[in-house]
Amino acid sequence: MDISGSYTFEAPPDRVWALLMDPAVISSCIPGCDRFEPNGDNSYRVTLTVALAAITGSYQGVVALSDLVPPTSYRLTADGHGRPGFVKGSSAITLRADGATTIVDVTGKVQTGGPIARLGQRLIGGVSKMMLDLFFLCLQGKLA
Q1: Phi and psi for 120 in degrees, rounded to 5?
Q2: What would the pLDDT profile of 107-143 be if each residue is shown by its tens digit?
Q3: Cβ-count burial of 26 within 10 angstroms (0-12 exposed, 13-18 middle, 19+ buried)?
Q4: In the prediction, which pLDDT does 120 show?
């Protein structure tokens, strides 16, 4: 399933980039993040607790950043698993200046398997988009 979003920040691209590369900021903004620790260069071990309809569960996995082109773009990949099933995804993140603001565009794909996949793509897509929106809303608040 595809997910996407665009988010406007009242700051220049280099400042927004710095937020997106700061592990402490990232971990504080990921909904349900229980653990976010380094696992090598631009890679992190992550534990999330996610509530999705009737299935609530904890996921453990790895998030990696690649193809970094500061301060304009990077690729994020995630691979997680837990009792509710597995989640794999990748996204392209681009930052573009728009006057005094920065627009962050996110496009990605998410795959699920196991019990969580039985909930249906529309429901999973809605929750994925909600988590993406919550993350960027939190990140926007870090600029204040």
Answers
A1: 100, 145
A2: 999 888 888 777 766 677 788 888 899 999 999 999 9
A3: buried
A4: 67
Non-local (6+) Cβ contacts of 144 within 8 A are none
The phi, psi pair for 90, rounded to 5°, reads -145, 150
Residues in the chain: 144
Nearest-5° angle of CA 128, CA 125, CA 86? 70
Look at residue 5 and tell me whether its pLDDT is greater than 80.
Answer: yes
Question: 79: alpha, beta or left, given left = phi > 0 and alpha = psi -120 to 50?
Answer: beta
Q: Tell me: the pLDDT tens digits for 88-108?
A: 999 999 999 999 999 999 999
Other beta carbons within 10 Å of 50: 18
What is the edge-to-edge ordering of all strands in the sheet holding 85-98?
2-9, 101-113, 85-98, 73-82, 55-69, 43-52, 33-38
